[in-house]
Specification:
15 helices, alpha+beta, disordered N terminus, Cytochrome Bc1 Complex, Chain D, domain 2, 14-stranded mixed sheet
């Protein structure tokens, strides 16, 4: 599959389609003509930096990280977009910008609300370009297979007509949130929506006659649990009306028509009433600021130190790359420094304590923090080739090893030792192959439960070589919660590592692994970049 080159006809077609796709008042933030080449080239640059690792260089949903993600990244070449405001299911420029800005809650698609308006415009423009080029390419391939005569000009004309947004979904004023309206809305909901979403709105309905929900491309789908606050397109009155009336193109969610006046508004009011108070705020990925207050005396490094209770905590939402309903929703982050040492405390709910890797299906609970001091940091997914990021990784199993190296006999103390019971000293160490060759995952003893890592792009993460870990970490598990404190010198102890001086503003991202669900490597829950503000 290839993307046709940006040429004069590409720009002309895109300019026409985009101008038709823009609602009044949504013109280019740069003041130029929608679809101008400079906007498209800027969009290409932004897309390659932030989007291609998942969606692929050509927008076909086949980026390097795509195999780690569920739901799968959108294939723009299919021409199908979920969140639209039009009756024919074709997104406007404003629809695309809204999806990029907000992200896709319930998936690994993060928000890009921090991008400037002109950058959001340009990125959306390039996404539309990829969709057009992908559809043209598919149409030409179809013609070749079917031995039909079709020129590129004709294919572009067909796709251009297909990509013109239709009339907008009508959105009337919100219905009152009173008992009469909710009564009517519930009756209509039970008739039209409960078969999939369930009578209680938890997505537990009889999903379909075949017993499962499937997207247009054959991938599995599920009905939304409204009570969790996870809505791909938002929870405003207009958002939900558009989802009901316009459906989610390419998914099992159909466009639904109501005959009587005020009926769609009543259903919308009822759906909104199902959302638990505060639920949406817990799951939305938004860039937040983690303040690092300065303390007198030494900074606390124990998770149970009372100083942490007096510091400001910040809720940071996490998203599993492979989505599941039972997950770590987020962490509470606290940060302190004493001018010499920085300490970060992460707390999260985890009903099970997983701190050994002795069994074939045993995986450790773990957490990581990622740091960049660049003004415009690279993608939070492991940085980029010319934009390295520092990572501190803590594993519960490593912390247990730091107390005493765990062995298979620690899990099954009564088992027969059929290894090398007569070997001692160096001979015993050499019999353990991984340890004999210096594998860092098989150390006899660990000074800390943490390891300092560096990453320069997806798939490149590894330990900083030639020096012991600059990070220390201590964790405690009590009553279904982990509390872990990461600490390190604010000055760089390893060549190339970032300095974290008082008054510094940096970026910080988080990741958590839940061992009881088999999380390891790329199967984890992550955050977007957040600001780290170190007090002078």
């Amino acid at each position: 599959m290839h993307v046709l080159p940006l040429n004069r006809s590409s720009f002309a077609l895109l300019a026409v389609v985009t101008s038709l796709a823009v609602l009044p008042g949504a013109g280019s933030a740069r003041g130029g003509e929608p679809g101008a080449p400079r906007d498209l080239e800027r969009g290409r640059s932004l897309y390659e930096r932030h989007c291609s690792v998942c969606h692929g260089a050509q927008g076909r949903g086949d980026g390097n990280a795509a195999y780690l993600l569920y739901p799968a990244p959108r294939d723009f070449g299919s021409g199908r977009f979920r969140l639209v405001s039009t009756q024919n299911g074709v997104p406007t420029q404003r629809d695309l910008i809204a999806s990029i800005r907000r992200g896709m809650p319930g998936s690994a698609m993060p928000p890009w609300e921090w991008l400037a308006e002109e950058d959001l415009w340009s990125t959306a423009l390039y996404v539309r370009h990829l969709s057009i080029e992908g559809q043209v390419d598919e149409l030409l391939r179809w013609a070749e297979v079917e031995e039909e005569e079709l020129s590129e000009t004709e294919a572009r004309a067909i796709v251009g007509e297909k990509m013109v947004p239709g009339d907008p979904v009508r959105v009337g004023p919100p219905a009152p949130n009173d008992p009469v309206t909710l009564h009517q809305g519930r009756r209509l909901y039970l008739k039209s929506c409960a078969s999939c979403h369930g009578e209680d709105g938890r997505g537990s309905g009889a999903v379909s006659s075949s017993g499962e929900l499937v997207n247009e491309d054959g991938t599995p789908s599920s009905a939304r649990d409204f009570t969790t606050g996870i809505f791909k397109g938002g929870t405003t009155h207009a958002d939900i009306v558009r989802r009901i009336a316009g459906g989610l193109p390419g998914s099992p969610m159909p466009a639904t028509e109501f005959e009587g006046p005020g009926e769609v508004e009543a259903v919308t009011a009822f759906v909104r009433s199902l959302v638990k108070r505060g639920a949406e705020e817990r799951v939305l990925q938004r860039r937040r600021t983690v303040p690092v207050a300065r303390v007198s005396g030494e900074v606390p490094i124990e998770p149970t130190d009372p100083s942490w209770a007096r510091s400001e905590g910040v809720w940071v939402a996490l998203m599993p790359l492979w989505w599941r309903d039972e997950r770590v929703e987020g962490v509470v982050a606290h940060a302190l420094h004493d001018g010499e040492t920085l300490a970060l405390r992460l707390s999260w709910r985890d009903p099970t304590r997983d701190d050994d890797v002795l069994g074939a299906r045993s995986f450790s609970d773990a957490a990581a923090i990622e740091i960049s001091v660049e003004r415009d940091p690279p993608l939070f997914a492991m940085g980029a080739a010319d934009h390295p990021v520092d990572i501190a990784l803590w594993r519960a199993a490593w912390q247990a090893d730091a107390l005493a190296a765990q062995d298979i006999r620690d899990r099954w103390p009564g088992m027969v030792d059929d290894g090398f019971p007569d070997l001692v000293g160096d001979l015993f160490e050499e019999s353990l192959t991984a340890r004999a060759v210096g594998n860092g995952q098989s150390l006899a003893a660990r000074p800390s439960g943490a390891e300092a890592l560096i990453a320069q792009g997806f798939g490149t993460v590894g330990p900083r070589s030639g020096a012991p870990s600059s990070w220390n970490a201590r964790g405690t598990w009590n009553d279904g919660y982990w509390d872990v404190v990461f600490s390190r010198s604010m000055s760089a102890e390893i060549e190339g590592e970032v300095s974290l001086s008082p008054g510094l503003s940096a970026f910080l991202a988080f990741a958590v692994w839940d061992g009881s669900f088999g999380d390891r490597n790329g199967q984890k829950s992550v955050s977007v970049w957040h600001r780290l503000e170190v007090a002078p």
